[in-house]
Fold these 2 entries.
Entry 1:
Amino acid sequence: MSRQAPIVKSMLELLERGNLQAFLALAQKAEPADLGDVLSSLDEEERLSVVKSLPRRLSGAAIIEMPDELQAEETIESLAEDSPEAVGEIVEELADDEAADFVGSLEPEQQERVLAEIEDREDIEDLLRYDPETAGGLMTATVVTLREASTAGEAIESLRRQAEEIEDFAQVYVVDAQDHLLGVLPIKRLVTSPAGRAVRDLMEDTEIRVPPEMDQEEVARMMSRYNVPAVPVVDGGGKLLGQVTFDDVIDVVEAEQTEDLLKFGGTSAEEELSAPWTEAVRRRLPWLLVNLITAFVAGGVVYMFQEELGKVIALSIWMPIIAGMGGNGGTQALAVTVRRVALGQIPMGRAPGVIGKEVAAGLVNGFVVGLVATAVAMMLGHGAKMGLVVLLALTGNLFVAGFAGAFIPITLGRLGIDPAVASSIFVTTFTDVCGFLLLFGLAGWVLGV
């Protein structure tokens, strides 16, 4: 951790001094996220000891808030192996969606042992049926509901009763006798309405609803677009199953951005900070081998022009510059386009405009950079003709980079391939090959080699 909250440092110092009682007293005042940071700073044996010493209410919340997901899963598995009863007690203190995530990280046999220790496990078992990266896997089945036939006065009394079991009133849903979703009821409208007013007259119709199978990224995008604190999850018949709240979506957005960033860098989203170096090798080596193969393609172009290179040694100075500038320009266009593809901001009709914009930007940038490079070539005494070769090669390669950086991710997205995974390899290879072809081809034409 690069920056720790003061309370985290204080708790770690107490643990280092062996003052467990003072630590437990301070832990009662700490936020779960801070406790999660404390657990992440300990080795496996210390972490398990601290988890066992914490009150069940705090230990489960702290494990869930640990920043390293792999560490959290290892802690849960070790605890389940040592004491399924303790895990069952922890799970009973959690909200149903958090409890499902907690239990879902265990092996099937461990899940059965832990669930056997939980009395009210039906909701958890229902949530475990869904893929964890879907709306069903994110949702909580604990929602605030009102009957359409009730009055405002009866609804307020019902909310008071439900408040004893439900902590967060993110949204109030109106349902019929069969729990089919009819609409949502703003709290302000409810409390300011006459007590005899019918709920059906106060509610708002809602078309913002999602099926349990919807991908979590689509759910997050929908909630961001419509700016709602929660979105209801309904089955095919319109029955209310639960809701996804904004705090769950924040975690999803962070996880998806991290995943895209890691994929963009040619590594795996599953690689955690605490993973051993052997895991890092296993995740990264395949992409490095693919990069090696594509590098041979660019090397093949240089091999084709080795005679020209031997005649004009100065060309070797400009090879890394042409290739590097093309790669940088392609990466710039690629980063912007991949993000827009991920957000669904490039419908079919807008693709040509997006590509055209990146091509124009690449062309202008290439010309400006080429002028600067030409001036340097003249200062080095390479002559006006070499300066012209460099100018045209840089302009052309950044033009190509803009096209490739936009066209490739859009095309991969249309084909159902994650552009964050594969785009960078293709763009880099494309700009390297085109850059070398332009440099040597122009040298042969202008310099006559």
Entry 2:
Amino acid sequence: MIISTERLPEECHTLLDKFGVKDSNLTDSDLREGEVLMTWPSKVAGLLEKMPKLRLLQTFSAGVDDLPFEKLTKVTVMSNAGAYSESVAEHAWALALALAKRVNLRKKVETYSVMGGTAVILGAGGIGSEIAKIAKFGFSMKVVGVSRSFKRPEFFDVKLHPTQLREAIPQGDVVFDALPLNKETRGVLNYDLLRLMKERTILVNIGRGETIVEEDIIRILKERPDLRFGTDVFWRRNGRENFDSSLWELENFAGTYHTAGASASGEVLRRAMISACANLERYLSRGETNNLVRISDYL
């Protein structure tokens, strides 16, 4: 039995009804019998004790850093990576271009051009690959990727390993942080790396706030007003993403309230849920998935 904490689109039922799906009026009895769970990471902790037969978890979200991995060592976990790639890539470029041209700033300032420059993209999964495609074909940019693996290697002119961050950062006219948050990436962009950005670099974060050290990005932006920083993701305080930051006081900053993905668009959410259902159907039918989560990355 598949248990979903959200009402699924009709397309999902077409894919999954052959396995048995319950997505409304859930009872404790339903949960006790459920072997497969579809939900958001933030809801998992409250459901685990009620689902003793749970063996497979499919998240609706691309990011899984909110999951209680210490309690999931015997559960197969699949993310929804790639489901929000186009929407988030659009948003990343919206921030980059708004900063380059200083949109909505009530004073005349120098504008930057991205055409023909170099884009450095940290994280080359679905989102990073979509950002790279726009950079390469939309702005004729050289694209440098930094990642353990590359989902669409054809969009990257240079492919570097995460151990080569110090080599990559100084190359970027625009640097995009599309990293997932795990034990390797938490705080990876600290002052020591941020200070390597060349003059007039634009840095955009659409991954997770905690991949950048908050105090260090504020410090470097104050020290170097030629740098510009945009983010859709902020740092967590007391377990919740907190959008209050002194970054808003800086002229060389632009931000949005984590609206790049599904939270601000019903259609994006619908497509993402269908993507999660399709991934789950492939796994249950053929044992195939592109989104298996390595729990060791988080423990």
